[in-house]
Amino acid sequence: MHRHLAIVFVLACAWPATAAELPIRKAGLWDLKMTVEGRNTAMPGMQHCTDPSTDKLMTSNFGNIGHEECSKRDVQVSGRTITVNSICTFNGTKVTTHADISGDFNSAYTVKVSSTREGGPVGAGTTNMLIEAKWLGACKADQKPGDMILPGGHKVNIVDMQKLRLPAGLGGLRLGAPAPR
Fold first, then answer.
1. How many other CB atoms sit within 10 Å of the CB of residue 5?
2. pLDDT higher than threshold 90 for residue 21
3. Distance between CA atoms of 24 and 164, rounded to whole angstroms?
């Protein structure tokens, strides 16, 4: 469980500050594989069916996670590489992150993340992670834009998740809790 919390912290801090800084991925089905350095077993991959509107929704949601909790969020674009450096604090855990995002967003891209945690419930440590994404083609007939196919074949849709809230240290999205009306 602690490793999963660490990955959430790393991704929240690594994501660019605004959707405008990250290109929209080509519409269709993307395969995402994540490798965490020092982990003995491979992490299960996932697939994401996307179109321009759901990709923009996902980018803006993750781009705003923790925005108010970050004392530093520097995004630099150089050619086909986006570099993000951030310092964020979530529930007493300070996370310093460096991420390089590169690729063409039409066929493949990679995200290399190095993150150091200090304090909090997750504990101190460094996580180095590589996310590799590859475009597979059109979404399958039983998929709609926003569908994420998780390990074990479980399907969730980010548009549906938009209706949920995060707890205070993660920007307000709390899975399983209804959004306020």
1. 18
2. no
3. 23
**Residue 164 binned pLDDT confidence (cut-offs 50, 70, 90):** low
pTM reported for the whole predicted model: 0.73
Tens of pLDDT, residue by residue over 82-114, are 898 989 887 788 889 999 999 988 999 999 999
Please give the full DSSP string across the chain, using - where no structure is assigned. -HHHHHHHHHHHHHS-SSGGGSPPPPSEEEEEEEEETT-SSPPP-EEEEE-HHHHHHHHHHHHHTTGGGEEEEEEEEETTEEEEEEEEEETTEEEEEEEEEEE-SSSEEEEEEEEEEESTTT-SEEEEEEEEEEEEESPPTT--TTEEE-GGG-EEEHHHHTTEE--TTTTT-EEEEEPP-
Average per-residue pLDDT for the chain = 76
Q: Can you tell me which residue has the tokens 């500050």?
A: 17
- The residue ranges of every structural domain in the chain are 2-176
